[in-house]
Amino acid sequence: MQLLGHPIGNDRRLFLIAGPCVLESERLALEVAEALAAMAERLGILVIFKASFDKANRTSGASFRGPGLEEGLGILARVRAETGLPVLTDVHETWQVAPVAQVADVLQTPALLARQTDLIAAVARSGRPVNIKKGQFMAPGDMGQVLDKAMRAATEAGLDADRFLLCERGSSFGYNNLVNDMRGLAIMADTGAPVVFDATHSVQLPGGQGDRSGGERRFVPLLSRAAIACGIAGLFLETHPDPDNALSDGPNSWPLAQLEPLVERLLALDALVKQAPDSER
């Protein structure tokens, strides 16, 4: 599959989706994006900047949601123009798809909306690549049906149906906890779609702090290594200069200053794994 002019796949070099959970300000977005652009150039990898203009699924109605559609798209457009990075953001409703697709290079559907047929069809008809997150409540094999919905909608619209990514972000494990079954990465790869592993949301503790979600940031490298050992196309890492004071998902975000050393080590593992026969991954 070609993603923004780059060949990607579960047997190709790892690419990265990274950025703050939510657009807190233009200044923060540019700070993170400039660091990511410099890292992408040094490491020679595809990096896609990710941030949300609206977090519609916050634990508490009092939590910060973001700047909203108009201001958020303006910030993303400036990030793209000033850093050269492609940008990704998520859409929660069908009416958001058209304006977002005019700015974002890649669209994303939230995990909690993975079975919303109208939303999946709308992003598929946008013509943009789409990162489709697996619901925390879904078996990995169920994502084959979601992919079929997207491909059917694209084909019916006369569009390329080979532009969908499937993203693992953990499965519900009792209350306020997630777990990763690494077999799921192989099961989703059996669909033929490139698989992305969301390492930072996988260590989230949903609603774990009562009025907000918690997280176990220290497990991000461990789960990233495990996923890469399975053979994946891309890695999703939310990052922030000061995670402890981030306005969303701070407990599971990786510190920006520590991102490049981590990615460098993960790329070395990725190269080693992808030299092995498929039967050993």
Short description:
The protein has helices spanning about 25-45, 70-85, 95-100, 115-125, 145-155, 185-190, 220-230, 260-275, and strands spanning about 1-5, 5, 15-20, 45-50, 85-90, 105-110, 130-135, 165-170, 170, 180, 195-200, 205, 215, 235-240, 255. By secondary structure, the protein is an alpha/beta fold.
Can you give keywords for this protein?
281 residues, alpha/beta, TIM Barrel, eight-stranded parallel β-barrel, 33% helix, lipopolysaccharide biosynthesis, 3-deoxy-8-phosphooctulonate synthase activity
State the low-pLDDT regions, or none.
none
The ordered string of helix (H) and strand (E) elements is EEEHEHEHEHEHEEEHEEEHEEH
Rg to the nearest angstrom?
A: 17 Å
Our measurement of the CA-to-CA distance between the termini, rounded to an integer number of angstroms, reads 20 Å
Helix percent reads 25-40%
Number of strands: 15
How would you classify the helix and strand content by structural class?
alpha/beta
Largest sheet properties: 8 strands, parallel, barrel
- What CATH calls the topology is TIM Barrel
Percent of residues in beta strands?
15-25%
Relevant CATH superfamily: Aldolase class I
Counting structural domains, the number is 1
Second CATH tier, the architecture: Alpha-Beta Barrel
CATH class reads: Alpha Beta
- Order of strands across the main sheet: 3-4-5-6-7-8-11-14
What integer is the average pLDDT? 95
The helix tally amounts to 8
Global outline: globular
InterPro entries: Aldolase_TIM, DAHP1/KDSA, KDO8P_synthase
Keywords: Cytoplasm, Lipopolysaccharide biosynthesis, Transferase
Subcellular location: Cytoplasm
EC number: 2.5.1.55
